[in-house]
Specification:
This protein is mainly beta. Helix content is 12%, strand content 46%.
């Protein structure tokens, strides 16, 4: 009887050791060109939940060194939101990325911008703060390349951490371009 119990315990223990810790199923189209959609499902297995780093659509490049440094200025990058294509006429070919508005309260900061890029792109977003207190909104367009440009809206939402004194943020710029710098009021 004890040999049976030990054998069952060993089997259960070995199953626990080899069990998948975290699994993600991803479904995507496999055909090119996309005339007909044929989907395949990929299974991605991660050794732990902490290793599950998947970026889909417009999203934050989470926990970068830039964002960790920004916390020293009392700012935490909460979320980014992309609007649908707002304009795709001839004016988008002459337009430059710009900051539309900066709304600062005691506990939040929201920056709304326009980005002119490929119609089929999503954006990976990051932030950095330099020694002068300038918040740099960093974004990379990626995805399927289409033969058109669009004006997208991106909204960056931040929480302010108020439990200690921080160096005050003075302005916001886009992708390191000082020509886009706007002061925070």
């Amino acid at each position: 009887m004890s040999k049976t119990v030990i054998l069952i315990a060993l089997i259960l223990f070995s199953l626990d050791i080899s069990a998948q810790q975290d699994t993600v199923f991803m479904r995507h189209s496999q055909d090119w060109p996309y005339d007909t959609l044929t989907y395949v499902t990929d299974t991605v297995v991660f050794p732990t939940g902490m290793m599950r780093h998947i970026l889909i659509g417009t999203s934050i490049l989470s926990w970068t060194n830039n964002q960790q440094n920004a916390k020293g200025f009392g700012i935490y990058f909460d979320k980014v939101t992309k609007s649908d294509c707002q304009s795709d006429g001839p004016e988008v070919y002459r337009s430059k990325d710009k900051i539309n508005s900066i709304i600062s309260t005691d506990s939040t900061l929201m920056v709304d911008i326009n980005v002119y890029d490929n119609c089929c792109f999503d954006f990976l977003c990051d932030i950095a703060v330099d020694s002068t207190g300038t918040l740099d909104l960093i974004y990379y367009g990626y995805g399927t390349s289409c033969s058109c440009l669009c004006c997208f809206g991106l909204k960056f939402d931040f929480s302010k951490m108020n439990y200690v004194e921080y160096v005050k943020l003075k302005g916001v710029m886009l992708n390191g371009d000082r020509k886009t710098l706007k002061p925070i009021r």
